[in-house]
Structures are given as C-alpha cells and as structure tokens.
C-alpha cells in the first residue's frame, strides 16, 4: 500500500505550509539572535509565546468557529502549576510559607514539572470542555468568559498558593530563545496537522453547518472536545514557556488585556488558517512595538510628537473593528500559505 | 429492507407525520410524493435519525429506535439532505471526506474519492476549491457523491431537483437512474412528479402528514389528475 493512501493530498500540502511558516519563524529568530539587542530578544520571545497561545486558540476557535475568551486562564494554569512544581524548596519556604498540601515541601525537575503542568491543564480543560462543547455560539463564549473570571479570582485570592498580585519568583530559567523557536515550530506542525486531519475537517464542517455535519454522522461534541483539549495543551506550553523564561509570574498577565491582545492577533490574521495565526501574531507583536515607540512622544523628522499614552490599546481595538468591518475572515481568509504560492505560480 | 410501521414524526411539540407505513425492498427505487408540508422530508429525517419519531422503523431486521445518526449510518443509511447543504467553506475533496466520517478504512476512502472524481470530472477539476463556489447542479452531484461515500445500502434522496434548471435536472435524474441500475436501493422525495415516477418502482402520495394513496408506477400515473391538483405541478 502506498503512503499516499494514508497521508492525504491536503495533509502533504499542510506539511509544505508548516515548513514555509517555520522558515519564517526561524529567519526572524536567527535575525534577532545574531543582530538583535537583549531587549529585542525578549520581544521576540514574548511574540513567540503569544504565537503558541494564538495557535492554541486557532485549533479550537478557528476550526470550530466558537469564540473562546478563556485561553489566558489556561495559560495561567500551565504557568502556575509548572512554577509551583519546579521552584526550589528554599525559595518556596520564603515565598509560600503557608502553602497547603505540602506544596512548598518539594521541587521537581523542569521537564517533569512541565509534564505535570500540561497534564493538569488538559484534565481541567477536559472537564470544562464537557460543558463548553455542548453549547454553540454565544453560549459557549459567555461560559468561557465566566471561566476566565473564576480562574483569575482564584489566582488573586488564594495568595497562599499563587501569591495573587505579588510576583511568584524564583522559577529557574530553563528556556532561552532557541527553546521557544523549537517549540513554536513543533506547534505549527501540530496545529496544521490537526486542521487537515479527519477530526479537523469534521470540526470545520460543523462550523459551516452544525446540523448538516450531524446528519452526515459527525460526532460534533467529540471533535469539539478533542480540539478544545488539544488547544489547552498549546496554552499550557505557552504558560510554561513564559514562566521558564521570565523566572517570575503574577496573576495580572493572564487576564483581559492578554485575552484581547491574542484574540486581535487571530482575528487580524484570519482564524480559519494556521497561516493567519502566525501572520496576525507577528504583525501585531512587531506593530505594537512601533506604536509603543510613538506613545513616548519621540522626535520624528525634526518634529516633536506629543506623548500618546494608551495608543497601543486604542490601536488594538481599531485593528479588530477595521478587520471585522472590511475583511471579517482576516487577512488570509480560507487560504493557507502554500495555497497562496500555488496560485501565484499558475 | 426498510420498513416503517405507523411512524409519527415530531418537530418539537408538532406532529408532522401522523402514522405512516412505508416499505422499501432491496434494489428498489421508492418515491414519496406530495406538496410542501406533506411530511416527506420529515419522514426521511426520521429514518436518518435527524428528527425524533414514534412507531417502528426497522432496517435489515435492526430496530432503529434509540440509535444515533452515526449508528444508523454505520448500518448503511445515508441521507442526501434537502437544499443540498454542502459545507461551503470546505473544499470539494473535504466535503467528500465528511461523507466518509463513519468509515475507518482510509485507503478505501481515498480510492472512493478517486472513483467519484472519475465519475464527475467537474468535481475533480474543482477538488481544491471551496464547495460554495460550485453551481447548483455541481453542488447536487457533490451532495449525492458525499452521501454515497459512506458506502450505504440505502440512499435517502431529498428533492435532488430542487431549484435546478430543467437541463441540469435531467442530468441529476440520469444519475439517479444509473445508481439504480447499479443496484442501489433508493428512497426518493420529489415534487417533480413526472420525472420521479419514471424512476420509481413504487410510490407513496402524502398530504399534510397523511398517506393519500400508494401503488406502483402505473397506478400512481393513473391518479395523475389528483396529484397535479395536490402538487400544483402539471403532469402532462
């Protein structure tokens, strides 16, 4: 039996697309490693962590066409679980003196900690997913929003475990720019492979016409649940990568601002494609750096610009409004990168 | 092969079909005729498991009560729904793959797709295009091919000629005829009485959820006058 019977044309096409996107990511990464300054390295690292989040969001929200707003909470769960597991006992004795269940009495290897963090995040996602996948449209979105608020409240008020608004410090710095490059390349391949898998196709069919997909024998709840849990794994990995690089986390970054930022990235790029997720993340990440520069009131071409505090927030809102108004399917629409190249060749 | 005994079909609290008995034997093409609101689509939906029903439906000796759509499809029941309902953002090829959602033999699925592409070269040419860009007739071909991707033993065809130009209609009916010639069992719903009766071995005439008459092609053709008053379609 030839291989082509098992790997469909679309899946092969997906491999080519993933490869092209990976080249783009690696090119940006190498550029900043060899020519960038330290702060630019941090910006690229942060962009790639957000890329993991946006890819995780694409897996569920993009394929199922159900808006999810809880993703930053799952990222937070991944980050905190890994942080609690990996931080040395000596540091936890200072930072978490009152931690229950002996949480401050052990410390694990970073890889074991990461594995536990992914497992716990996926398990929680599965439990919540049993409810969310049975809802459609606005119902699922509202539940996801409630989830974000619940998780954030727990992070804020269980200060004996999560330290709330204060910094959870002393996490060993395990990852560098190379680690996040490898992880994001893997993530692109996984997200694209899922999109072209038979689950991915069934999920996209249910996004087009839920009743129609059911009448074809598609188990809509099941494929949604698979995507939801797989997406949560991406989010957990994003949280872990964040914690393992910065060494310090707090509850604030895993809330509305971050939800809004990453949703804007996905909407701008186009949520139906993996290419859109990558494009949107890169454009907004680097675009925002430019906007932040303008915020400070710099001197451009001899003209002193006024200070424009809050411009980045306004710009994000404008990006969402303009995209929704003029191209609601985002920059890429339905087209993945290799399909675009094929069209040019013709 | 397929037996409906005193079947009542419900859309929420509303009873759309009031106790219908239908029988389809292997290799037969049976047609359900009647005007809008007669309960034809409801009957097909009940067989496929899309709508809820009471009464007995058996398929090859299996009682279908309590079986999910998926399980019914595994037994060999496929629905080509009314209004085509293709997945417009998915490519033509992906639409066909969805038809095979309940199958696990990937090489078989791949060769079946090749088979349909050789049967419908138009679909092959557009295999990577979004299915929403196809014309009405092409979409209907895709709908039928998609339903057959599940390797069914009976095909439930709901108004395949709806909204198509006469010439395209002819092509679709020729396609159904060739399926029948290949031995496919078909339960067809149509408002296009004359063309439907050409294909049918047996027919049921419904109105407002009740059975009006039944019989073979000749019997129903003889009742043509009453049918044209019911359906509003001139039968000459």
Short description:
The complex is a heterodimer of chains A (346) and B (236). Chain A is 72% helix and 1% strand.
CA radius of gyration of chain B is: 17 Å
Q: Kindly state the number of beta strands of chain B.
A: 10
Helices and strands of chain B, in N-to-C order?
A: EEEHEEHEHHHHEHEHEEHH
Radius of gyration of chain A, whole Å: 21 Å
Largest interface (C-beta under 8 Å): A-B, 27 and 30 residues
CATH superfamily of the domain at 2-86 and 152-231 in chain B: P-loop containing nucleotide triphosphate hydrolases
- Helices and strands of chain A: which structural class? mainly alpha
Structurally, how many domains make up the residues of chain A?
A: 1
Q: Specify the structural class of chain B.
A: alpha/beta
Shape of chain B: globular
- Give the termini distance of chain A in whole angstroms: 32 Å
Quote the beta fraction of chain A: under 5%
The succession of helices and strands of chain A, N to C, reads HHHHHHHHHHHHHEEHH
The oligomeric state of the chains shown is heterodimer
What strand order characterises the main sheet of chain B? 6-7-8-3-9-10
User: What number is the mean pLDDT of chain A?
Assistant: 88
Total number of strands of chain A: 2
Description:
Chain A is mainly alpha-helical. Chain A has one domain. Chain A has helices at residues 9-35, 38-64, 71-86, 89-95, 110-132, 138-157, 159-162, 177-196, 198-208, 210-215, 220-246, 256-269, 274-295, 311-326, 337-345; strands spanning 299-300, 303-304. In chain A, strand 1 and strand 2 (303-304) form a beta hairpin. In chain A, helix 2 (38-64) crosses helix 12 and helix 3 packs parallel to helix 6. The two termini of chain A are 32 Å apart. By secondary structure, chain B is of the alpha/beta class. Chain B has a domain at 2-86 and 152-231: P-loop containing nucleotide triphosphate hydrolases (Rossmann fold). Helices cover 39% and strands 27% of the residues of chain B. Chain B has helices at residues 40-48, 69-75, 92-99, 106-119, 121-125, 136-148, 166-181, 193-199, 217-222, 224-231; strands at 2-11, 14-24, 29-33, 52-59, 62-63, 77-80, 154-158, 185-190, 202-207, 210-216. In chain B, the strands form two sheets. A six-stranded mixed beta sheet of chain B has the order 6-7-8-3-9-10, sandwiched between helices. Chain B has a four-stranded antiparallel beta sheet with strand order 2-1-4-5, with helices on one face. The longest helix of chain B has 16 residues, at 166-181. Chain B starts with a strand and ends in a 5-residue tail after the last helix. In chain B, 46% of the residues are buried. Chains A and B meet through helix 9 and helix 10 of A and helix 2, helix 3 and helix 4 of B.
